[in-house]
């Protein structure tokens, strides 16, 4: 086994211990969430609307986790999610078009594999919390490198490729990093925006925990992107172009989305921008509709498109606010 292979395999060798810890917390939180959900949906008719809203919120982020989990799983040399992890209500679809990335950087590979494992854990946790009665099925997801695919369309909007050209997320580590950046930052804002719909404590605490994990992931990717960008400045400029494209799509009045271009402090020294924040130092938030504008690659009214070719499953699936 080469040194690179050894480094890649080392995190997995530690996996069982961490998996045990994750399983403990997931089971504890999952049991609480399932119990609360069942009680609210069957024993408290007067609270049905509130409970349904929370179920809608969980299913909304489950759709997004399907997207991420498949992307990282296949790109890191694995396979798409198993049938047992994608069934449910709504129109089921496949996550198609992804392929493995050839990693030369063992550290980057191990981080990406961790994100793949966490993405699958998130899917399993949300599905267990919702139970088979309320979890939505995985919808059709486009992860392809085709010129007409979602990654290429977003890359064209950002000016990374020209008209009719393809952006291949799996062709190199740098391309994969940019593609991961396209998705992860949006996911963090989606969790931030959906928290207001979750009021039951047994749901709120674990969902906030999932958001924290996604924020750690996004920061790790942004840190890698910034570090590589110091040697290859075009990567930093690409991150800015992607963030501008996302801002164009979400329709927000303020230009909040940010790439990893560094700023300067009062002394004129460069200051990294690993955490994209508002002027008050708080995380950027998007409504579910703004998130869908980006993931559908449509700044107008839409119920499908982009990464979700047939739309999301569940109640929250339109970019319209009402």
UniProtKB/TrEMBL annotation:
<dbReference type="InterPro" id="IPR052965">
    <property type="entry name" value="Pigment-catalase-like"/>
</dbReference>
<dbReference type="Pfam" id="PF13668">
    <property type="entry name" value="Ferritin_2"/>
</dbReference>
<protein>
    <recommendedName>
        <fullName>Ferritin-like domain protein</fullName>
    </recommendedName>
</protein>
<dbReference type="InterPro" id="IPR006311">
    <property type="entry name" value="TAT_signal"/>
</dbReference>
């Amino acid at each position: 086994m080469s040194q690179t292979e050894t480094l890649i395999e080392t995190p997995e060798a530690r996996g069982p211990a961490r998996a045990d810890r994750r399983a403990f917390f997931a089971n504890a939180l999952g049991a609480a969430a399932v119990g609360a959900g069942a009680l609210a949906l069957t024993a408290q008719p007067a609270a049905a609307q509130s409970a349904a809203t929370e179920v809608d919120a969980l299913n909304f982020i489950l759709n997004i986790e399907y997207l991420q989990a498949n992307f990282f799983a296949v790109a890191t040399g694995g396979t798409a999610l198993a049938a047992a992890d994608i069934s449910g209500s709504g129109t089921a679809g496949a996550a198609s078009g992804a392929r493995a990335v050839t990693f030369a950087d063992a550290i980057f590979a191990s981080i990406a594999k961790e994100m793949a494992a966490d993405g699958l854990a998130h899917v399993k946790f949300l599905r267990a919390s919702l139970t088979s009665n309320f979890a939505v099925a995985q919808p059709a997801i486009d992860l392809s490198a085709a010129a007409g695919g979602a990654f290429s369309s977003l890359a064209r909007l950002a000016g990374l490729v020209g008209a009719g050209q393809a952006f291949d997320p799996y062709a190199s580590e740098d391309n994969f990093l940019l593609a991961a950046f396209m998705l992860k930052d949006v996911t963090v804002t989606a969790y931030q925006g959906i928290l207001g719909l979750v009021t039951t404590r047994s749901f709120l605490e674990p969902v906030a925990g999932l958001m924290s994990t996604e924020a750690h992931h996004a920061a790790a990717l942004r840190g890698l992107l910034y570090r590589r960008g110091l040697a290859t400045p075009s990567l930093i400029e690409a991150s800015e172009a992607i963030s501008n494209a996302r801002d164009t799509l979400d329709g927000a009045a303020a230009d909040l989305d940010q790439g990893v271009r560094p700023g300067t402090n009062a002394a004129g020294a460069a200051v990294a921008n690993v955490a994209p924040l508002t002027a008050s130092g708080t995380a950027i938030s998007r409504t579910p509709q703004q998130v869908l504008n980006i993931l559908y690659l449509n700044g107008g009214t839409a119920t499908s498109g982009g990464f979700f070719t047939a739309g999301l499953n569940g109640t929250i699936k339109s970019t319209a606010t009402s």
